[in-house]
Amino acid sequence: MHITVAGLGVSGSSAARALAGLGARVTVVDGGDGDKQRAAAAELEEWAATGSASGTGGAGHRAGITVRLGDGDTLPEGTDLVVTSPGWKPTSPLFTAAAAAGVDVVGDVEIAWRLRGPDSAAWLGVTGTNGKTTTVRMLASILEAEGLHTMAVGNIGTPIIDVVLGQGKDGARPYDVLAVELSSYQLHWAPSLRAHSAAVLNLAPDHLDWHGSMQAYAADKGRIYEGNTVACVYNVADKATEELVRAADVEEGCRAIGFTLGTPGPSQLGVVEGLLVDRAFVENRQKQAQELAEVADIAPGSGTPAPHNIANALAAAALARAFGVRPAAVRDGLRAFHPDAHRIQHIADVDGVTYIDDSKATNTHAAEASLAAYEHIVWIAGGLAKGATFDELVQKSAARLRGVVLIGADRALIREALARHAPEVPVVDLDRTDTGAMSQAVREATRLAEPGDTVLLAPACASMDMFVNYNKRGDAFADAVRELTARDH
Length: 489
Known about the structure:
This protein is of the alpha/beta class and about 500 residues long. The chain is built from 17 helices and 20 strands. It has a nine-stranded mixed β-sheet with strand order 7-8-6-9-10-11-12-13-14, sandwiched between helices. It has a six-stranded mixed β-sheet with strand order 15-16-20-17-18-19, with helices on both faces.
């Protein structure tokens, strides 16, 4: 086959290697033509020419890789299939040309699903607007505690196609089950995917410029439930996720399993007196409940877990229980799990004030969950709004705000929402977008804070107006907090 791969990023390069290793003639197209793209192109072409052992498949099976930079719109002549990287919009000219030529367009997740062997690992899928990565990593930790050979893959950073094609090769132990993070982009391009069990954690407006509407975004998220065989896990507090379950065409016998921060009903997991309990995977759901873990077992040592991380733990537990994992493994897996940096990360306590880095809260839904975790907050917010509005977020969080420090290009949108819905809250508006603004923001937040307060970086915005990514933004916050502690000593 002649396969065109759209995009020269991690997933595109992975797909190109895998498909060339299986004998396809691959053309990779990318609209960029900078140093980064040229370096990636050279690496791919060298791999194809030299038969590097690091790739998938033997050198003798390769039909070669050609890279075309600076033109991502034109369909290469003779293309039989297009494999797209997740970020490419459905309206891209390349895909319009493919449709006109009768050529299918799929994603790397679809290719991985099609290439599974007969005894391949089961997939437990996770999607949602927020919390995907944390939930998938919690799930993998629980599965490992059960003694299963597993890996967290997909949108979390490890290309799933590499894992699927590498299973059991060179004497490696095959995976028993995979914890798969799936974005709405990936689900859009994966029509054949049929998971063992899957969860939609929550739904809030995001990536609407890509999907075109909230309805289209939700529909792509809901694809994760299609063909599930054991459990469709939904969020009791988010009715839209339950509606996606109702709309899904699943295998006979597949069950709807809810998770809630309240007392669970039958076929639900929830919280009772500080315990995570299961009323779904027990013999008598009407009268029985199985203790799984204590709330304190969720990332122990990091303080009281935020409500949204308790919800993430319940979703992970539901998927693990759907796969037959014992209660003790849920507890042990949650105890072993440690959150990634910049996700409700405790940085320091200085003079009775707690400093928390949630730079990963890049949209209003994530920021709302973060703000709900603390009682008295000095909030550092702002950046690139990506078309978001902030009235609802401010309305819900106003009672918790001791003060607000605004940074970034679109801070005026948040300032205006504060003026409408929390006019009594002091606001410091930093009219600068350089990276050094974070140090000043932390100093201003410290001035507004009182003992017992939390200074919370939960920007509700993307970072690229000031920083390379949210990681660098979080690092700048942590460095600024450490400057405070250094001055105090």
